[in-house]
Amino acid sequence: MSHIADNPCPGGAPDSCGIAAVVCEVLEMEVRHFAPLAERLRHIEIMEYGLHNEPPRLRRELQRIIDRIEQRSDIGGIALVYGLCSRGTEGITSRRCALAMARAHDCITLLLGCRRRYAEYVAKYPGTYWYSPGWNSKHIPPGKERYEKMYREYCEKYGQEAAEYLMEEQQRWFRSYSRATYVDLGVGATPEDMAYTQQCARWLGWTYDYQRGDPKLLVDLLSGNWDDERFVIARPGQSLSATGDDRVVEARQPK
């Protein structure tokens, strides 16, 4: 098993090099909460959550931040607190630092703490839409509030008739889901937030479920405890690439 936790800095001393975390703001609360447990963590960079809707832009912004972080002499490892995210992290590379990311399709694996737990849940409940403290605070999730907001915006832009058509298309997409699952790591979750998710589920006609997450995967990512089973570790010059299998993502040498 490959492991670089003892020395995340290629050629450097373990006590002199630290780790930087590049974080989607959907997980900002959780990362800041658990950051004190990660002794090597020296820097946290928060990225706009909406970037995941534009994978090419996400890729460009992540690469720009990584290039900037690598100019710091005290950083030898970079933890991407992301998943593949519609392949928006594919192609990311580093010139000097070790680069690590959980073997995950998206951030829900980081909340649940295990990609196999995620896969098993989705296999059992394929129509699941995930809610979390971060997602609920950073955007308006599916539910009555989102519907009404989008309807108003469409009416203003396109008129009522077009708005009704667009909302019907939106609702057709929602009908492919049947379950609203709220997952949290005990950080930022409130009874009001969970009740809000339940209200969304009722309005949509979905089943509500609650799953308590496991922070170990996230803490180990921030700490540099990177094993090959749970994480992909790209050495300088390698890039991240989707595998299409249970490994989810791998590090590849440039062609």
What does this structure look like?
- The chain has 255 residues and is an alpha/beta fold.
- The chain is 38% helix and 21% strand.
- It has nine helices and ten strands.
- It has helices spanning 28-34, 55-69, 107-112, 115-124, 133-138, 144-158, 160-174, 191-204, 216-223, and strands at residues 18-24, 41-47, 75-81, 98-102, 128-131, 179-184, 207-212, 231-234, 239-242, 249-252.
- The strands form three sheets. A five-stranded mixed sheet has the order 2-1-3-4-8, with helices on both faces. A three-stranded parallel sheet has the order 5-6-7. It has a two-stranded antiparallel ribbon with strand order 9-10.
Jot down its keywords.
255 residues, disordered N terminus, alpha/beta, 38% helix, five-stranded mixed β-sheet, 21% strand, 9 helices, three-stranded parallel β-sheet, 10 strands, 2 domains
Put the structure in a nutshell.
With 255 residues, the chain is an alpha/beta fold.
Order of helices and strands: EHEHEEHHEHHHEHEHEEE
The total number of structural domains is 2
Strand content: 15-25%
Number of strands: 10
Strand order of the largest sheet: 2-1-3-4-8
Cα gyration radius (Å): 20 Å
Most strands sheet: 5 strands, mixed
What overall form do the CA principal axes indicate? globular
Overall helicity: 25-40%
Structural category? alpha/beta
Number of helices: 9
Give the averaged pLDDT, no decimals.
91
N-to-C CA distance: 25 Å
Question: What is the subunit organization of this protein?
Answer: single chain
